[in-house]
Structures are given as structure tokens and as C-alpha cells.
């Protein structure tokens, strides 16, 4: 009886003379997942003993969720992959990108989650930011989900670029018809984490989060609303005070209700810092001085800095002279951010 694993290894049981061809944590995790998903394996006492050893060594035992490989490309010695899966949280098919450094072949690694901005999907960051080089240097897995549910056939989902498709705002919608599918906060902070830990060689309790623009807002609220879940958080040009900017007012009004402005505050980093009660957490912010959205009042980073100061939450704002909102700007400083997260993930 042969059970193929993700990376080409095999777990073989021939008349109870069982062996496992690799001690790679990646393959061991895969083996455990197969054991859970195929109860008939328990008929082999040798396999059961191997399973027990892996459990005692603390290897992942998360039941595997089916994922489908879309593409795999070698990059800086590792592999840049894109997968799809059926999301229970969002009730639709979702895609995500994952960069696996070469070190993931033989050991478990920390994870950096990246949340992209308005109009983006799972590919923008991996194609434009140049992050793989730094992730490879620091041995970090990098995961990039899409920015919203897709093709769920809701009225108005594709009518504008700043609401609906590509603009999930990383909240859990409460208003119809959005509430069934637009639950990006729960997707990112629960389902996606379980999916990644169950299918890849991660250190389950070592993860950080970062993002850009709408994704910067998402990274900040994910960290602030889940004290201790992430070891660090950083944001490029985040929508720092969405309850007070046009983008946020439109999104929150649609997803949360125009008459629910008190509820809006629970999805706004500048409001959340006042009630933060968890392990020490520094907000590491980046902002280009020539960002047109900064000048238009969409980003409001100073409001967040002031709120952090009042709440005595550590905050760093790096103002980058002459830089705009684009991925040219993100690519210029992504190395600093990845090094920042790597220090916290050691």
C-alpha cells in the first residue's frame, strides 16, 4: 500500500514492514495528514508507532484540506507556488500564493503573511515586490491570499474598483448580500492559517503579518484584534483610519451598515489601539511622502501615530521622501520589512 506525498516521497507499507523514506518535517507532516485522512492506515501497527513518534516530537497533526496546485516556479533557490482551494469561510474557490525557500525541503520555517491592496489578487506582490530574494535569505515562508471572494455572483460585486471584488477590506461583513461570502478577516486569521499549517512545513506558532494600502489596514487589524497571534506586524501606506476616509466609509457602509458606525470602530486600527491588551506589539509603518492617496486624505497615518502615543502602544512611522504608493516603492523597502519580521520570528 503506497501513499504519495506532496514532494515526491512515499510512505510504504509492505506486510507491516514499513519505512518512511525521509526525515523531512515536510514529508513527516504529510504522512501524519494522510494517517488522519485515511483511517485504514491504523491497521498497520508499525505505521501507528511511527505516527505516535511524530506526535511526540511535536510535528503538525492538522487534518489536511485539499489544495490544488496551479503553478510552481523556481525562484531564488526556492519555489514560488500558487494554489486554489474551496474556502468554507467564504463559500467559494480561493487562490493563494506561497513562497517556499530551499530550506523548507528539510526543516520547518516561520511564516510571513502578506495582504495586498485594492484591485490586487494573489499575484501582484509575488510578481512586483521582489520579496522572494529576502525571504530566501531569512528562511521565511511567505503566503499571499487573494483580496476578496471571487465570482460569487452578488449584485454590484464588480461595479467599482474600491468595493466588492478585489476590495474585501479584510472585515467580516454583516450586511446582506455580502455577509455570506465577504468574511476576509476570519478567512485570513483562521481558515488560511489552518490551511497553511496543515499543508506546508511551518512552525505553527511563529508567524507575522504585513500588507500594503488596504492590505496594510488588514494587517494592522488582524494583529490588533488577535493579541499574540502574530509575532510582528508592518504596513506600507496603510489605510490607517478607515472610519474617517472616503474608501473606508464606502466599504464599511456597504459591508457593516451605514448606521453601524460604532461597529466600524472595531475594524479601524486607529480605534483599536486604545483597547489593545496583549503581548508587547510594535506597529511598524512605512509611508511615501509623494503618495497621492496620502495627500487625498485616504491614508491618515498621523492619526494612527497619535492614537498609539495616547494608548502607549509602540509605533514607528518611516516617512520615505519622494516615494509614491506604487510597488516600486514597496520593492524599495520590502527587504527592510522582511528583515524586521525575521528578527521577531527567530
From TrEMBL:
Keywords: Cytoplasm, Hydrolase, Serine esterase
Pfam families with a match to the protein in the record: Esterase (PF00756)
GO MF term list: carboxylic ester hydrolase activity; S-formylglutathione hydrolase activity
Catalytic residues (positions): 213, 291, 325
Main location (coarse class): cytoplasm
Stored SUPFAM superfamilies: alpha/beta-Hydrolases
GO biological process terms, semicolon-separated: formaldehyde catabolic process
Role of this protein: Serine hydrolase involved in the detoxification of formaldehyde.
Protein name: S-formylglutathione hydrolase
UniProt source species: Anopheles merus
Amino acid at each position: 500500500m503506497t501513499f504519495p506525498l506532496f514532494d515526491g516521497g512515499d510512505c510504504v507499507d509492505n506486510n507491516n514492514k514499513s519505512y518512511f523514506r525521509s526525515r523531512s518535517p515536510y514529508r513527516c507532516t504529510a504522512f501524519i495528514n494522510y494517517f488522519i485522512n485515511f483511517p485504514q492506515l491504523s491497521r498497520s501497527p508499525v505505521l501507528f508507532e511511527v505516527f505516535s513518534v511524530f506526535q511526540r516530537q511535536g510535528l503538525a497533526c492538522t487534518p489536511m484540506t485539499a489544495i490544488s496546485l496551479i503553478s510552481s516556479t523556481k525562484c531564488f533557490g526556492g519555489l514560488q507556488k500558487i494554489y486554489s482551494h474551496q474556502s468554507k469561510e467564504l463559500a467559494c474557490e480561493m487562490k493563494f500564493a506561497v513562497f517556499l525557500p530551499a530550506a523548507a525541503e528539510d526543516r520547518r520555517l516561520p511564516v510571513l503573511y502578506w495582504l495586498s491592496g485594492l484591485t490586487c489578487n494573489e499575484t501582484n506582490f509575488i510578481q512586483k515586490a521582489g520579496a522572494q530574494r529576502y525571504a530566501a535569505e531569512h528562511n521565511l515562508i511567505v503566503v499571499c491570499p487573494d483580496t476578496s471572494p471571487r465570482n460569487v455572483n452578488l449584485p454590484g460585486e464588480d461595479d467599482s474598483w474600491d468595493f466588492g471584488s478585489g476590495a474585501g477590506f479584510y472585515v467580516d461583513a454583516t450586511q446582506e448580500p455580502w455577509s455570506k461570502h465577504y468574511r476576509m478577516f476570519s478567512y485570513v486569521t483562521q481558515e488560511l492559517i489552518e490551511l497553511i499549517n496543515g499543508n506546508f512545513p511551518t512552525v505553527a506558532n511563529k508567524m507575522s503579518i504585513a500588507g500594503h494600502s488596504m492590505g496594510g489596514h488588514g494587517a494592522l487589524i488582524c494583529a490588533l484584534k488577535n493579541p499574540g497571534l502574530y509575532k510582528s506586524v508592518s504596513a506600507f501606506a496603510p489605510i490607517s483610519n478607515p472610519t474617517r476616509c472616503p474608501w473606508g466609509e464606502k466599504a464599511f457602509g456597504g459591508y457593516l451598515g451605514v448606521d453601524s458606525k460604532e461597529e466600524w470602530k472595531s475594524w479601524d486600527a486607529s480605534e483599536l489601539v486604545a483597547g489593545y491588551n496583549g503581548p508587547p506589539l510594535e506597529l511598524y509603518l512605512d509611508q511615501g511622502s509623494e503618495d497621492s492617496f496620502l495627500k487625498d486624505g485616504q491614508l491618515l497615518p498621523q492619526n494612527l501615530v497619535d492614537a498609539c502615543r495616547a494608548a502607549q502602544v509602540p509605533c514607528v512611522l518611516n516617512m520615505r521622501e519622494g516615494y509614491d504608493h506604487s510597488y516600486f516603492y514597496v520593492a524599495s523597502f520590502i527587504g527592510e520589512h522582511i528583515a524586521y519580521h525575521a528578527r521577531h520570528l527567530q
